[in-house]
Design goal:
globular; nucleotide-binding; 6-stranded mixed sheet; ATP-binding; about 280 residues; 10 helices; Rossmann fold; single chain; binds adenosine-5'-triphosphate
């Protein structure tokens, strides 16, 4: 037997982070990230609040540009990535019913369909049925429960038919039965060969469903098999890094406030204005 015949070939990357730094107004939120997300993998992204998890997803879809380094995509175009943002960002006041909301998942095919033909209609109906929302097609999205809305958003993602699915806290604020059904749908997508990247907080769920985990605390604390990543040592290090980052942030905010106060006390402009104020 040839020695290399026993080694399974590594799956090619669908996303590669190349010294990636992402942030806002020149403040980095994710630092110098290197690594590959293998095609077909099921990856959890975990970390304390403010660790940069959502920022990383925004960087992958190109909502924010890298401050340094880059994100390389292989076998998927940026505009075709299926991306579920946090549910809190959904405008439920927008006047649209479930059917049309889900149909938006076909937006990239609308040109080819020139409107919704019968095949498209069947796909929409199947996607609505797959998330258990039959009968609610004509209900405005503002009249759905949190779990129903999340089901509708998953149906829309299904129609996108993307090889890469990014989910930002997919179970946040939904009932247990919706969470179970949507977790099963994610497993099905992965079994179909899609790559799934989910930002999650529930470590039990991560242990149960996600073979690979990236633990972020602005930098990558650990990124490998879930059991290895979720060691007490790694989690403690992530907590320490998050605390240091938030202390640094509050110190620099305090310094800005102090500089403003001191600046206003000694500002020549202020002194001039005071000198001309009527007494
Ligand atoms: N639009 C923004 N403008 C400025 N700073 C931002 C913006 N969005 C996020 N940040 C900051 O970037 C850092 C990372 O935020 P991010 O939302 O990526 O963290 P997270 O790990 O997803 O947190 P959580 O678990 O609380 O959702 C935080 O310090 C946050 O305050």
């Amino acid at each position: 037997m040839r020695p290399d015949s026993t080694i399974a070939p590594a799956a090619p990357p669908i996303v590669r982070f190349d010294n990636l730094t992402l942030g806002y107004q020149r403040h980095p939120a994710v630092h110098h990230l290197h690594g590959d997300i293998a095609a077909g993998s099921l990856l959890a992204v975990i970390g304390p609040n403010g660790a940069g998890k959502s920022t990383l997803l925004k960087g992958i879809v190109g909502d924010i540009a890298p401050m340094e380094g880059r994100v390389r995509l292989h076998g998927v175009e940026r505009r075709n990535i299926a991306y579920l943002t946090q549910q809190s960002g959904v405008d439920t006041a927008f006047p649209i019913v479930v059917h049309d909301f889900v149909a938006l998942g076909l937006w990239h095919e609308f040109g080819a369909f020139r409107g919704l033909n019968r095949a498209a209609q069947r796909r929409i109906e199947a996607a609505i049925a797959a998330v258990g929302l039959e009968g609610l097609e004509n209900r405005p999205i503002g009249h759905l429960s949190g779990g129903q809305l999340q089901r509708a958003r998953f149906a829309r993602l299904t129609l996108q038919d993307s090889p890469l699915v990014l989910l930002d806290e997919p179970y946040s604020g939904i009932d247990a039965s919706s969470a179970r059904d949507l977790a099963a749908l994610i497993q099905r997508w992965n079994a179909e060969g899609r790559t799934i990247v989910s930002v999650l907080h529930d470590l039990e769920h991560v242990r149960r469903d996600y073979p690979q985990t990236l633990l972020l605390a602005r930098e990558a604390v650990a990124w490998s098999a879930t059991a290895e990543v979720l060691s007490e040592a790694h989690l403690a290090r992530a907590r320490r890094l998050a605390e240091t980052a938030s202390e640094t942030a509050s110190r620099s905010e305090a310094e800005i406030c102090r500089a403003n106060v001191v600046g206003s006390e000694h500002s020549p402009l202020e002194n001039r204005r005071n000198a001309h104020e009527p007494r």
